Amino acid sequence: MQTTRIKGLTIAALGVLFIVPDALLVKITSVDPVVFLFWRGLLLALSFFVISWARYRSRLVPEIRKCGRKGLFCAGAFAISTLGFVVGMKNTAAGNVLVILNTAPVIAAVIAWAVWKETLPLRTWVVILVCVTGATFMAVGEFGKGDPLGLLMAVVAATALASNLNVARSQPDSDMSVMLMFGALVLAAVAALFGGAQMPSGRDVFFIALLCLVFLPTACILIQIGPRYIPAAEVSLMLLLETVFGSFLVWLFLGEVPPNLSLVGGVIVFSALAVHGWTEVSRYRKARLLVD
Question: Cα–Cα distances in Å, from 19 out to 15, 146, 210, 217?
């Protein structure tokens, strides 16, 4: 059991490392949100298909069918969370969006408890509360910056993300990552209906392709697989690392300087997650010693 937890935490952490450049590459492009969403959805759908086909080959269609209605829900929730994230990033400061996404672990934990009666260990709740405290410091530092639409869409993104991971957790025998290609296609289709099927500049094409053909496909698949091994709230908890490192990259390359309170909050979040990871590894080592 402890081996499974370490595996889940490792998969989620690797996924987060690949998703860290997301905020920077979204902010650095100059295209309209609807155009960005179209190309993001289209390129992600292609990437997800290639990765899923490479993993399953002739077993891909049966694996898709195995996901059933819950898989369709995960695909839709992925599309909605992506829409919320991109529109939020384009309409408010990156720190605002990443801070609001910090609520995803709490939302995920509440959904898991209310719908599937899944409870978390006390130590995990403590880590969540400490991280939310750190996020609150960051939110106070960013207060008053940005369009309300951006803040609202960030809330939508956090809720959809938490719902997606919980549903994936409820059916651990199915690999819900194979459904992501459909969510990406829906995103591209909706964006096309609103005029998003336009060719960006060469510069923007490079950054969008870098994000959607390299970083995001790997990140999304790893994060989607994570709930097969650990609770959705813990996967969401690992995503808080993006808040710290994502904000740092935006600060470093775009000059969106975070206030001192945001820096304090970032240190709190990072420290709490580092202690959590160290604790889980220590528990795993002790369990192995007992078995040996």
Answer: 6, 23, 12, 9
- d(CA 243, CA 258) in angstroms, rounded, equals 12
Q: How far apart are CA 246 and CA 62, in angstroms?
A: 37
Question: Tokens 């209310």 — which residue?
Answer: 114
CB neighbours of 114 closer than 8 A, spacing ≥ 6? Answer: none
Residue 283, token pair as written in the block: 């528990």
192's tokens: 């096309």
Torsion of CA 198, 48, 160, 8, to 10 degrees: -150
Instruction: Read off the amino acid at residue 235.
Output: V
pLDDT, tens digit, 9 for 90 and up, residues 175-212: 999 999 999 999 999 999 999 999 999 999 999 999 99
The CA–CA distances, whole Å, from 234 to 58, 91, 166, 231, 271 equal: 33, 29, 11, 5, 16
* pTM exceeds cut of 0.70: yes
- Position 145 scores a pLDDT of 57
SS3 of the chain: helix, strand, coil, percent, to 5: 85, 0, 15
Q: What is the pLDDT of residue 143?
A: 55
**pLDDT value for 62:** 96
DSSP string, 231-277: -HHHHHHHTHHHHHHHHHHHHHHH--PPPHHHHHHHHHHHHHHHHHH
pLDDT at 220: 93
Q: Which residues of the chain have pLDDT under 70?
A: 1-2, 94-95, 98-99, 138-147, 284, 287-292
**Per-residue buried b or exposed e for 256-291, using 16+ beta carbons within 10 Å of the residue's own CB:** bebbebbbbbbebbbebbeebbeebeeebeeeeeee
